[in-house]
Amino acid sequence: MYLSRFLSLHALWVTVSSVMQHYPSVWGHYDVCKTQIYTEEGKVWDYMACQPEARDMIKYVKVTLDPPDITCGDPPETFCAMGNPYMCNNECDASTQELAHPPELMFDLEGRHPSTFWQSTTWKDYPKPLHVNITLSWNKTIELTDNIVITFESGRPDQMILEKSLDYGRTWQPYQYYATDCLDAFHMDPKSVRDLSQHTVLEIICTEEYSTGYMTNSKIIHFEIKDRFAFFAGPRLHNMASLYGQLDTTKKLRDFFTVTDLRIRLLRPATGEIYVDEQHLARYFYAISDIRVYGRCKCNLHATGCKEENKRLLCECEHNTTGPDCGKCKKNYQGRPWSPGSYLPIPKGTANICIPSISSIGNPPKFDRIWPNISSLEVSKPNQANVCDNELLHCQNGGTCINNVRCQCPPAYTGILCEKLKCERDPGGCSQNSGQGAISPGPLLLLTALLGAAGLCIR
User: Fold this and answer.
1) Cα atoms in the 13 Å half-sphere on the side-chain side of 409
2) What is the mean pLDDT of the chain?
3) Helix H or strand E segment including 308
4) Are 211 and 156 in contact (CB under 8 A)?
5) Lowest mean pLDDT among 122-136, 169-183, 445-459
6) Strands (E), 97-238
7) Do the bridges between strand 406-408 and strand 159-165 make them parallel or antiparallel, or are there none, so unpaired?
8) Nearest partner of 72 among 329, 327, 285, judged by Cα
């Protein structure tokens, strides 16, 4: 009897665990562009929005240094150990592999001891500024998905700017300023990401959080992507539907996380004090051991694959689109203007595929006898989908669609589709007393039913 009871409870636990584990997937991963479904008219394609998975983008980067001769070792020179002006027996020599510090060492696999790193020349020309620009180029539009992390082998710089480009380096905009004294360096009040909000998430700030000079246990500088995502998706990024909704409807927000190039502008090395010790200038330099950039190819929600071809990343376009970013319709598929896919409605989004041109509609194309599902083609306007309706784009949690442009949400909910609990904005989160539990009732009802069924079996 005890064995049968144990087996019943074990089966119950496996079932509930499976349900709870997969329940968040209703918010969509966008990892499939189309599936075959059966209707009264036969087999058809059901199209959906799709995107490539995130990856380590450093594998595909091209790095450029300005000035080009800023790397140490040609001619050989000695430098002081970090933070100790009296240990100046270290040598940088470009002609000796063990003593060279070329730029590619910023991107090699770490874990070795001692760490490998790129290093600049020392500040021997003081008081002339020691300025270095490190440009990272992908020749492809990418969407950032995780924090940018820069690890310094020297002290973190006293002054630095992280910049981005959206047009392959033709123009640049600041991403974030870093300084030991923001007011003195950039005439900006110091802030951190924690001082921002949903309404100010695009603000360009200066932070003093990562500029502490010669602290050997503090080598890392962050540009916080996930903390900015959390303003919309919650502290643990559980509510991705809200983030996707914001990215879908707010172009400035979407562009903020999109780049073609990044530029690290090193403006002043770590000095460790207010003044520069002119007697020991060999202690001042820049050294970077690792740079991490994670993201995905931007394919306008028309591809799940992105391949490297002739040292260039290209989207493997679907939905009858083409181009490096799937940014136009294929020939003979220009029956309406091209449009990017949409994350909404959750979980599959809207594909907005390119449809056959009128002159080519006569017969289905020979290479594809399966016609698309018409529901995945229709949009209310040529270039803009409804925010909500009463058929596909449902307002959630009892919300009401107003004129197809917004959801009128119940008092406890907010978000594009009323998908987010208001209490998540509170410092204490959603407590049981608030009456706004963070877990949707679906799994709980299933759990109750399963427990009841198990009770009947055990009896």
Assistant:
1) 15
2) 81
3) strand 305-309
4) yes
5) 445-459
6) 118-119, 132-144, 148-152, 159-165, 173-179, 206-207, 220-223
7) unpaired
8) 285
User: From residue 457, how far is each of 5, 182, 370, 419 by CA, in Å?
Assistant: 8, 68, 47, 37
| Residue 138 near residue 57 (C-beta atoms within 8 A) | yes
Q: pLDDT tens digits, residue range 311-339?
A: 899 999 999 999 999 999 999 999 989 99
β-sheet bridge partners, residue 173: 164
Q: Cis ω on the peptide bond leading into residue 174 (within 30° of 0)?
A: no
CB-based contact 183:154 (threshold 8 Å): no
CB 115, CB 289: distance < 8 Å: yes
DSSP-assigned letters across all residues of 5-33: HHHHHHHHHHHHHHHHHHGGGGG-----S
Tokens found for residue 105: 């060492």
DSSP 350: B
Q: What is the pTM of this model?
A: 0.74
DSSP state at residue 244:
H
Residue 39, beta-bridge partner list: 42
- Give the whole-angstrom CA distance, residue 453 versus residue 18: 17
Dig out the tokens for 439 from the structure: 């877990």
CA–CA dist 11, 17 (Å, integer): 10
Number of neighbours of residue 189 by Cβ within 10 angstroms: 10
pLDDT digits (tens, 9 = 90+) for 358-398: 765 554 444 333 444 434 443 333 334 456 665 556 677 77
User: If residue 229 lies in a helix (H) or strand (E), which one and from where to where?
Assistant: helix 226-233
**d(C-alpha 116, C-alpha 113), whole Å:** 8
